Amino acid sequence: MDAFLPLIPFLPLIGFAINGLFGARLSKTAVGIIGSGVLLVSFLLSVACFNQVAASGAIQHTMYNFFTIDSMRVDFGFLVDQLSVWMMLIVTGVGFLIHVYSIGYMHDDEGFWKFFAYLNLFIFSMLLLVMGDNLLMLFFGWEGVGLCSYLLIGFWYTNKEYGKAARKAFIMNRIGDLGLLLGIFLIFKTFGSLNFTDIFSRLPEMRLDPAAVTLICLLLFVGAMGKSAQLPLYTWLPDAMAGPTPVSALIHAATMVTAGVYLVARCNPLYSLSPDALHVVAFVGMVTSIFAAIIGLRQNDIKKVLAYSTVSQLGLMFIGLGMGAYASAMFHVTTHAFFKALLFLAAGSIIHGMGGEQDIRNMGGLRKAMPVTFWVFLIGTFAISGFPLLSGFFSKDEILALTYAHGGVWWWGFAGFGALLTVIYMSRLLYVTFFGEFRGTEEQKHHLHESPAVMTVPLVILAILSVLGGLLNTPHFMHLGTPQWLASWFGPVIPAADMHLPESTEWSLMTFTTSLALVIIAGLYFVYTRRGNLPVADEAQTGLTRVVANKFYVDEIYDFLFVKPVEIGSRLLHYADTLFVDGIVTGVAKGVERLGAQFRKLQNGNIEYYLIGMVAGAVLLLLSLFV
Amino acid sequence: MTALLIIFATAIFVLFAGLTKNRSWLQPLALTGCGLALGVTLFELLGAGPGGWNHMYADMFEFTDYALAFSAVALVSALLIIGLSGYGFRSLHDTLGDNYGLILFSLCGALCMFSFTNLTMLFLGIEILSIPLYVLAGSRRNDLSGNEAALKYFLMGAFTTGILLFGMALVYGATASFDIHSIASAISDGRHSAGMLHTGIILILIGLGFKVSAVPFHFWAPDVYTGSPNLITAFMATVVKTAGFAAFYRLFSVGFAPAIDFWSIPVAGMAALTMTVANLTAIFQTDFKRMIAYSSISHAGYLLLAILACDVPGSEGALLFYSLTYSVATILAFGAYMTIAEPNDDGSFEAFNGMSKKQPLLAAVLAISMLSLAGIPPTAGFFGKYFLFTAAFAKYPWLIVLAVINSAVSIYYYFKIIIAMYFTREENDYAVVTSPGIRWVVVLGLLLIAFLTIVPGSVYALI
Amino acid sequence: MEPSGYMPIVLQSLVALGFVALVLIVVPLLGPRRKSDKKNENFECGIEGQGNARMPVSIKYLMTAILFVLFDVEVIFFYPYAVNFREMGFNGFFAVLMFVGVFLLGFYYVLRKGAFEWDR
């Protein structure tokens, strides 16, 4: 197996090379087959890896020595243990499905071959990220995925806004990377090595300054915040929806954005030494989770809703990490990869069928025209909402239960609030899109069609996974399948979280949140379909007078009790977002610009000034004689 | 030394060959000379050793692995630049031989600067390097901005030469020697007068700071880089910078090493200032060459970190690796830039609009070199920065934080080019005129970058 | 060398400076002073001065001048050799031969480049 290990990341690289160099001359079919074929092989190899890891433990494979500085040896090497092989399966498996889907989705795009080349390059970088046996390899992949994300967000560059979104994503990510890089430097200084195995094996015998560990953890977490779109570095993710929908599914939902979670889970021995850092992680996750969910309530762009939902779900994962429930967070990463990829791809199918329309106000009643898409979207929505026995139910509940066990009732309450908001906006999305009557133009109505099989088959597979994914890690008290299978699988890498709740408490927590979620799902069904109410906001546009009229039918009580306060809160947060978060970012940029303009004046072309400047500098340097 | 002799002989030969009617073999001649010199240098570096040259010439030279490795870097840069010259010099006729000759003479100066053991040799090397450049900067005789560049460069260069020489005199006065090893032992023995020595070191610092364009002695660089012919700018940004830093490092890590506590303060200040000022100013540039000028200044800021960390093992390798990746990326960028800017007489960023469609290869090369200059993995530039920053991190964490922030800022302006080439809707009707020579150079350069990316350790471990 | 060893040099310099100063001071005092327009002119004899001295000069003059200086300075290197040529033996001879060779090459180059052609 060892000999084949490098093939897993390098096959996608080869696919990138072939498609990138000759793609323009190949037929679309050939490009698609090469692009997804390499991934299928990678996936099968990953499965083989999985079997080997299951049989004989972690595999460490060194390809060659990258470089040696003094006593520090950095290898181009892979560490395939229980954690990374799991990520490899997700990346290659979900990645393969999305590749296949893209064959249909991107079929009419002139940059078809470029798209597949970029996607393959992304998979390569992502695999380096999860497979690398040292922090430098991880950083390598980390930046590589950032770069691919940049290329893919700006893929439809004819729209100038998209290019801006791409750059915003890249720069936001770089702010995070700054922290990560500094964290890596600090780790090197502290441990004298970058190799995960070395670092974690030296950890017990080293008497470390707790402040230093906390600093390292926080710096790494800054990196994770950037990549996983946590407050305040999250604004790039909703903008990143400018990219083609498969990209949103693959990069901005299923894989890349979970890299931050992976990083923290990978470094869990470090984080476990620093309760302060874990608190910060949990707090940031909590705030992000609620904040993003509230914003999601008012979005009308189908992809934007899903984007905010992703940010919110990532927040939930960080809450889990912050509670020390690393395995649960990874579990949620897995189920989230299934159902969020599913939701995005289904959204892509809708957009495809609607001829590029993304505004849910112009949809409605798609249930009949797109039955497959409807059913899978329904499954996805139920899965993310925590409908009993679907995948999201188990993973979300596990995080919530652990939050209750470790953080107490308040943490649990807030985390649960975020989760319920998710239920609200997701069911709203479902009902508005698929129920009621069609609200688009005649032309759109005519165009409306179910997507081809190449798109729906991956959707169905993902739907099945979304249904069954939860069985990977069922709670002990339910006696369903192998309880806590995933947690015990991660056991060698991630110590099991301490769940010290009585079964009855767990049962009641679960029942409480689940029944609330069910009530909301059912209630909203009546709100949005039975009464014909539409969530159209005050900024309703012309041509939608019918919609505007319907606004007055919105259920009064619902409005008074829930929508209004939330709307106000949402609007406030939206302002806070534009004023505060964006304000700081742009403010910094403006400040930098002003400063630069001052420096620019120095260079005025007059040699006299230059000489004076030099002499002044010389005098300044000579002053150091007296220091 | 063999390389130096070969280059010198080639230079004279080319100079005379330039007098004949048939000038088509000047470039192959220069290339052969450089290639031969590179081959000999690599042979000496990897196996044979420098031979008996070490102690000739009254111990003026010392051909350590350090000197040989840096010679190889300079020769690689020169090879690539001369490879581009078929294009860059295509409008020159009468003075073609002179141009090649001057480039090669300048290269001789650089080679002296890698191997000196004596301050006089350092001074001679700097002058041999600089004087041909003053001429080359103004080699387009009818071009006003070229003349301005040459005059500015000359005046300011002469100004700092005086300062440098005075510094050397003071150091001699303080330690009674020009030999860097004797200077070091005189300093560590305490046989020196501190005031005179420190003043001398500061003055030398100013002189070398000018050569490597460190703030506040950088004022010449943007104007001179912009005004000079493209090829010469590429030469200045790469070979001259490499030579300047290699000499800087050698002098300060050998000769002035015992006084590191004194000079590290001003050097650290210079490094911080250089990175920040250059990056902030670069954001505003709209002209490619000016942007590259500021970028080259900012890289000087990063490279100063190697000098600060000169007592850390591995800093030499970091300097070497960084110089090589920086040089190759810069030359590639110039190669791609010339093809669009020269035929259309427009060096602004807008000139690159839609280049990815016109010339996919050149656009990709330019994009990769920009990524490498910005230090983004997986390009080789990342390792350069990584090596430098790790070397200096233990001693100057605050400076590294600043450097990392600055390299994040630099993405902003490097990406402007990439955005123009790939993500811009408005396109121009500019023609892109290439030549086989350019294509060869970019492919070779790309291979080199790929090699440096895949096995960074190989170059790093050379010295 | 001890600083006191420089004393003779210092003395000699003082005497030299003193003599110059003495002459400069004493001579004007000794002679009578008669001023007239004629005497204040630039030239006492020859053709009368015309126009401004700052006029553009053909580059050819400068070229010749600078080449003269160049080769003149190089000739100075012969003096140390002339003093030591016996001690330096054949090694020295070949070194100087090489020097002259390079020097002649330069001269040939300048010639071929047409630096001395006045009518071009």
Structure, explained:
The complex is a heterotrimer of chains A (627), B (463) and C (120). With 627 residues, chain A is mainly alpha-helical. Chain A is built from 26 helices and two strands. The longest helix of chain A has 47 residues. About 4% of the residues of chain A have low confidence. The longest helix of chain B has 32 residues. With 463 residues, chain B is an all-alpha fold. Chain B is built from 19 helices and no strands. Chain B has one domain. The radius of gyration of chain B is 21 Å and the shape is globular. Chain B starts with a helix and ends with a helix. Chain C has a single domain, classed as Up-down Bundle (Methane Monooxygenase Hydroxylase, Chain G, domain 1), CATH 1.20.58. Chain C contains four helices and no strands. Chains in contact: A-B, B-C. Chains A and B meet through strand 1, helix 5, helix 6, helix 25 and helix 26 of A and helix 6, helix 8, helix 9, helix 11 and helix 16 of B.
- Derived from helix and strand composition plus strand pairing, the structural class of chain A reads mainly alpha
Structure summary, number of beta strands of chain B = 0
Sheet with most strands: strand arrangement of chain A: 1-2
- Total helical segments of chain B: 19
Q: Uncertain runs of chain A with pLDDT below 50, 5 residues or more?
A: 537-559
Query: Could you say which overall geometry of chain B the principal axes of the C-alpha atoms support?
Result: globular
Distance between the termini of chain B: 18 Å
Describe the main β-sheet of chain A briefly: 2 strands, antiparallel
Round the Cα radius of gyration of chain A to an integer and report it: 25 Å
Task: Tell me what portion of residues of chain B adopts beta-strand conformation.
Answer: under 5%
Q: Kindly report the greatest chain-chain contact and the residue count on each side.
A: A-B, 60 and 67 residues
Spatial gap, N to C terminus of chain A: 62 Å
Average pLDDT number of chain B: 88
SSE string of chain A, helices as H and strands as E? HHEEHHHHHHHHHHHHHHHHHHHHHHHH
Strand content of chain A: under 5%
Total number of helices of chain A: 26
**Sheet with the most strands, sense and barrel status of chain B:** none
Q: Secondary-structure element sequence of chain B?
A: HHHHHHHHHHHHHHHHHHH
Which range best describes the helical content of chain B: under 10%, 10-25%, 25-40%, 40-55%, 55-70% or over 70%?
A: over 70%
Mean pLDDT of chain A: 80
